[in-house]
Amino acid sequence: MPPNFKLQGHFILIFLAALRGESRYLEMQEAVGYDPLLLFNANLKRDLAGEQPYRRALRCLDMLSLPGQFTFTADQPQLHCAAFFIGEPQEFITIHYDLVSIDCQGGDFLKVFDGWILKGEKFPSSQDHPLPTMERYIDFCESGLIRRSIRSSQNVAMIFFRVHEPGNGFTLTIKMDSNLFPCNVISQTPNGRFTLVVPHQHRNCSFSIIYPVAIKISDLTLGHFHGLHLKRPPADCGEIGDFVELLGGTGLDPSKMMPLADLCYPFHGPAQMKIGCDNTVVRMVSSGKHINRVTFEYRQLEPSELENENGNSIPEFCLLSL
Ligand SMILES: *[C@@H]1O[C@H](CO)[C@@H](O)[C@H](O)[C@H]1NC(C)=O
Known about the structure:
The chain is mainly beta. It contains three helices and 22 strands. The radius of gyration is 21 Å and the shape is elongated. The site of 2-acetamido-2-deoxy-beta-D-glucopyranose has 5 residues, from loops.
């Protein structure tokens, strides 16, 4: 089970900065001690050095979007720590233990979670992840170095850890590997374009955008509509088997979000929607009988676009306009 994780102000700041698409910036800022000139130089050096691995210390609460080697060393007992990793949509994350010096008998732990958990909400949700929830936790204190390299099933992963003894800690190497058919994704950026393809797989895929966005679906192919099987759109997409839904909500877990629209017949021309929720998800449910594909573009809503007529704050239910 995950530790009962308390959100601290510091952590919220890191998390929000990262979710606002500044995670790469944050990394660099951290590495060079907040000097913009040094920041620029460091960027340049990194570009020139090319293959030089990126190294830095890991904090008790941290967020990483770059591959590299990261070392955590406790300077005091650290009991509630977590680090969130995020890659590009078409990347898996591999976490490799280079060195682990913790006291499992004494109550320390180091666990990888395949996805993200925040305030009890998981991404991907258990309906969308290929593994049962318990198998998504890999506990160093149980498996040791038998599982020295752990690869995530999508572009996000995290670790939880607790280290009592000052001086103890661990070193990890984070690598990104390419994923030909990304299924579950959290977008690192507030603006983008993506094509989700589910080729003959019985699985559900969620693409999550943690910003209020205008989203434009430009193309939808659901294999079962080759030919003219249908005289009119069905009343309920659930009867069809394969469909795309748009979800809105405030937490991470798509299964706890509100359905805003269902799309289960082919699309002609772009359809745009503005969704004022903190989190917007494009979710595809696939039976495995077909090749399904959806293409969409999204951009972050301006603050002025987020005000509704009654001056109420969102959600109501986040759906602002079509
Ligand atoms: C996909 O999600 C639907 C509900 O939206 C669920 O009924 C179904 O079991 C899920 N399929 C898989 C393969 O997990």
